[in-house]
Amino acid sequence: MDSRDPGQGSGLSAAVLFPNKREVACASLGFLKAFEVIRRRVAFADLSYVPSGPGDPILSPRRGLLLGEISHREVGRFDIIGFSVSYENDYVNMPGLLIRAGLAPLAAERTKTFPLVLSGGFTMSTNPLPIADFVDAVVVGEIEPVADSLLGVLEDAGRRGLPKDRVLPLLDALPGVYVPALGERSVERIWSDTDGIAPEPGVRPGSHFGDMFLVEVGRGCGRGCHFCAAGNLYKPLRMRSGESIIALAGDAPSVGLVGTAVGDHPDLEFILGRLIAEDRRIGISSLRPDQVSPKIAALLVKGGIKTIAVAPEAGTEALRARIGKSITDAEIVGAVEMLSAAGISTVKLYFMIGLPWETDRDVEAIVGLVTRLARVRGKARLTVAAGPFVPKPHTVFQWAPFEDRAALRRKVDILRRSLSGPILEAARKPVSLKRVLLRRALADPTIELDTEKPLPWDFIVSGVDRKGLKRKYLELRTS
To answer: Is 50 exceeded by the pLDDT of residue 8?
Structure first.
């Protein structure tokens, strides 16, 4: 075995990398869970991330090579290097981390079996093609169901001294594993049942969330918004029981509830009540307007929550219905009224601009809705963030075009002129890199994709009915 971990016998060593800064890595429950899942199955594991700059302790003092945080061992000397990638914008950091590890960034130029470079995380289930040239294998879906078989293949290959060209087909034969060098065969997304979801890894110092212990309340969402990849790619909806969530939190004084549909948990009132009764602080980042009730709002404040985000997404009820988020203005106003009455210090509103079939009237309606909500808040803080819509693979809107830059600038200017001052926290203009990485298209991204032609990511069998997505998109386009 070409071991990079002396003294560990025939066992594997693994470095799990997060392609962003440390404070973001330590706040990523997916990354920390992936590290724990792998750590329990190898002889030695470590983690690393994007250095903050020269002199960062994560870099070796003499050669500037990337190190593991725990062992300070060079990352390039581990048998496995595994990326956990949650955000498309982090793709650009992956080749740089490989170079920092002293490795060739392109998989084709790494001829030895080890270190073998893997990638997983949410974005790998949407479209792994933008990073396909850099990695040897990709986990499509969730890590828990495939970890044993994946690591078993690699350990056996190491014991037998198999060359890389014999190891890759063995990985390609595993469910939920995509090997870019062998082409785009159909790869089915794999997922864990509720009991198989990995336990919580605990708090790492330096997290963006401080000492808050993060607990995953479940996976999936039953709502089906047409723009949301998470709602489709975390299917089926799986919720842990309220009692198990309390147990997983242990004796942590501060507990953050994490998931794509926290507000839909049937035991939410029970969970909040128990945590408050035990004198713990609570963290919840956002709620849908139709999930807010006077009792929930009061419990949030009792749990020490000062800020809650609410995402209307669009300015008019008609456009909200068209994007699959059928929430009325009355529900939004009612939610903000309840949060305000309970004493929530800050309400954040999130909108998208450049949505399919959006008009300037829809954008102007954002101004009208925000003005109405500002009156509800009175002197209490209300902030607004608006960002450009990005079509996501495996959603109804995967064929939709990006709004052109001139139109987006005009819409941003509408918001900036009308919502000047502290109320408008951010009205972001589009990032061209996002277009390239998400679609990997040479054609103009402002042109709708052909619904009759295969899409680059169709080889990923997401579990979502492609024909159903297409039928819905065409129905919306012609309505």
So the answer is: no
Pairing of strands 137-139, 177-178: antiparallel
Segment 296-354, tens digit of pLDDT:
999 999 999 999 999 999 999 999 999 999 999 999 999 999 999 999 999 999 999 99
Using DSSP bridges, classify how beta strands 346-353 and 307-313 pair: parallel, antiparallel or unpaired: parallel
Residue 48: other Cβ atoms inside 10 A: 25
Q: What is the pLDDT of residues 104-144, one digit of tens each?
A: 999 999 999 999 999 999 999 999 999 999 999 999 999 99
Of 394, 476, 395, 387, nearest in space to 426 by CA: 387
User: Among 293, 299, 305, 238, which residue's Cα sits nearest to residue 274?
Assistant: 299
Range 286-478: architecture per CATH: 2-Layer Sandwich (3.30)
* Two tokens, residue 373: 């909500």
CATH of 13-188, one of 2.40.128, 3.40.50, 3.30.530, 3.40.1000: 3.40.50
Q: H or E segment at 281?
A: strand 281-283
The token pair that represents 343 in the structure block:
């004493």
Q: Which two tokens stand for residue 369?
A: 């809705």
What's the chain's Rg over C-alpha atoms?
23
Helix (H) / strand (E) containing 436: helix 432-439
Which part of the chain has CATH 3.30.750.200?
Answer: 286-478
